[in-house]
C-alpha cells in the first residue's frame, strides 16, 4: 500500500509551505506600513491643494452669506455665468457675446464660406465639367437635388441641401426638373453651374462611360426621413462610388447639419468647414444664404417687387414671420420685443428701418402699428404693387401674397 500522505499537525517541527508564504506576506506588509509611517512623519503633512482650499473657502462663504447671488458681486456673477464652466446662457447674453469684440464675426465666416463655394463651382461646376475628356468626365461624381412646388421654403431646402452636399463631397450639382421645368421657375432662375438629369444622361452615353469605363449611371438614394436606414451619421460618403447621390427628404436646415455629428472624421471635418464648428456660437457662417447666392437668383418680377418696397433703402433689421393665416397676440408681442432687443444691441443711430416679411398680410399690418412707435417700417403691400405694376392677382386676394 502507498504511504499515507503527510498531514500537518499543530506542534510539528516543519511548518507547511502555505504557512511560510502567509508569514512572509505578513512580514512584508508590516515592513511597508512602517516605512510609510516613517516617511509621513519625516516630511510632515502635505500642504493643501490651492484649488481645493479655494473651493472649500468659497463653499463656506456661500453658507455664511444669506444674500442673493446677484447682490453679492454683480461682476463676479457675470463672469461666472459666461466662463468656460458655464452651461447655460440666455438668448440675450449669447447675442451680446456674439456681437462683442475678439470673438470673430459671422460676416467673416460667411465670406470664407462664400469663397469656398466659389472655388467649388469653379472646379466642379457644369461649365468646366461638361468640357472634360471622356476618361475624366466618367470619373466625376454628382449630387442630385430634386424639388416639387409643394411649398417654396421646404422645397428650396432640398436644392440647397444638395448644393451643400456637393461642396462637402467635391461632386457636381444636378437640379432635377419636372417635365422639363425647374421648380418655381416663374419666380427664380438657377445657376448655369448645375446640370440636369437629361444632360447627364446625354453626356454619359456620349462618352460611353458604361461600355468603355464600366461605370453604369446609377443613383444611390439616402432617405433622411427614415432614421433606421439613413447613413447620415454612420457612413463615410466620400467612399461611395455611385455616380449620383440623392440625399432625399431634407426639407429644412437641419438635415445636412447632421453630418456635423458623423462618426467619420473626414465627413465631420467637411461639414464643419462649411457650417462652422457646433460649439462655435460666435462665428457661425450664413451658409444657406451663401448657397442661395450661388445657386439661385430672383426673377425680374420678384426683383422689381423688392426694389419697389425698399426704394433704395437698406433695412437695419428684417423680420420674417411665417404665420399661415394665424394672428396670435403672444407672437406679435414676442416679435416686437425681439426687434427692440436687437436694436438695443446694435446701437443704431437715428430712426431704425425695419422691414417686415410675412405670408399673412393682416399680421404685418398689426405688427406695423406696434413697431411704428420706435422705428420706420417697410412691408410689401401686394395689392398696391399689383395695382401700380399692372400685375394680375390670381385666386382669393384675402390669402394671396408674395413673400419678398
Order of helices and strands: HHHHHHHHEHEEHHEEHHEHEHEHEH
Euclidean distance between termini CA atoms: 110 Å
Radius of gyration: 34 Å
Mind describing the biggest β-sheet? 4 strands, parallel
Count of domains: 2
Query: Average pLDDT across residues?
Result: 79
Percentage of residues in DSSP E strands: 5-15%
Oligomer: single chain
What form results from the Cα inertia axes?
Answer: globular
Region (Disordered): 45-88
InterPro entries: DUF7810
Transmembrane segments: 21-39
Keywords: Membrane, Transmembrane, Transmembrane helix
Write a compact overview of the structure shown.
The relative contact order is 0.08. The protein has 17 helices and 9 strands. The protein has helices at residues 17-43, 50-64, 69-72, 74-82, 91-99, 106-124, 126-129, 134-137, 152-169, 197-206, 209-213, 265-275, 287-295, 300-310, 329-346, 361-371, 382-389, and strands at residues 142-145, 172-175, 188-190, 219-223, 244-248, 296-298, 317-321, 353-358, 376-379.
Amino acid at each position: 500500500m502507498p504511504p499515507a500522505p503527510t498531514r500537518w499537525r499543530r506542534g510539528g517541527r516543519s511548518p507547511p509551505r502555505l504557512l511560510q508564504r502567509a508569514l512572509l506576506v505578513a512580514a512584508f506588509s508590516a515592513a511597508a506600513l512602517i516605512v510609510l509611517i516613517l516617511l509621513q512623519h519625516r516630511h510632515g503633512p502635505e500642504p493643501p491643494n490651492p484649488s481645493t482650499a479655494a473651493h472649500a473657502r468659497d463653499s463656506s462663504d456661500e453658507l455664511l452669506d444669506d444674500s442673493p447671488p446677484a447682490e453679492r458681486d454683480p461682476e463676479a456673477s457675470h463672469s461666472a455665468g459666461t466662463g468656460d464652466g458655464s452651461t447655460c446662457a440666455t438668448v440675450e447674453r449669447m447675442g451680446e457675446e456674439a456681437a462683442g469684440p475678439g470673438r470673430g464675426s459671422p460676416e467673416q465666416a460667411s465670406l470664407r464660406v462664400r469663397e469656398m463655394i466659389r472655388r467649388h463651382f469653379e472646379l466642379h461646376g457644369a461649365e468646366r465639367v461638361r468640357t472634360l475628356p471622356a476618361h475624366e468626365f466618367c470619373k466625376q461624381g454628382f449630387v442630385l437635388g430634386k424639388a416639387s412646388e409643394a411649398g417654396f421654403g421646404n422645397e428650396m431646402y432640398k436644392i440647397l441641401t444638395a448644393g451643400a452636399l456637393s461642396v462637402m463631397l467635391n461632386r457636381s450639382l444636378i437640379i432635377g426638373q419636372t417635365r422639363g421645368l425647374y421648380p418655381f421657375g416663374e419666380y427664380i432662375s438657377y445657376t448655369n453651374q448645375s446640370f440636369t438629369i437629361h444632360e447627364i444622361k446625354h453626356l454619359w452615353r456620349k462618352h460611353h462611360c458604361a461600355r468603355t469605363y464600366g461605370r453604369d449611371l446609377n443613383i444611390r438614394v439616402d432617405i433622411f426621413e427614415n432614421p433606421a436606414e439613413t447613413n447620415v451619421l454612420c457612413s463615410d460618403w466620400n467612399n461611395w462610388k455611385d455616380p449620383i447621390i440623392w440625399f432625399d427628404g431634407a426639407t429644412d436646415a437641419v438635415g445636412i447639419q447632421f453630418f456635423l455629428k458623423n462618426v467619420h472624421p473626414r465627413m465631420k471635418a467637411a461639414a464643419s468647414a462649411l457650417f462652422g464648428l457646433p460649439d462655435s456660437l460666435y462665428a457661425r457662417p450664413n451658409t444657406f444664404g451663401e448657397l442661395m447666392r450661388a445657386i439661385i437668383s430672383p426673377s425680374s418680377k420678384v426683383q422689381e417687387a423688392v426694389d419697389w418696397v425698399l426704394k433704395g433703402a437698406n433695412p437695419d433689421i428684417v423680420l420674417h414671420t411665417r404665420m399661415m393665416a394665424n394672428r396670435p397676440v403672444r407672437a406679435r408681442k414676442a416679435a416686437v420685443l425681439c426687434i427692440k432687443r436687437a436694436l438695443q444691441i446694435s446701437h443704431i443711430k437715428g430712426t431704425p428701418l425695419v422691414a417686415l416679411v410675412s405670408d399673412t398680410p393682416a399680421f404685418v399690418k398689426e405688427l406695423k402699428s406696434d413697431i411704428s412707435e420706435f422705428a420706420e417700417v417697410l412691408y410689401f403691400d401686394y395689392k398696391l404693387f399689383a395695382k401700380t405694376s399692372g400685375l394680375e392677382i390670381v385666386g382669393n386676394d384675402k390669402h394671396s401674397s408674395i413673400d419678398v
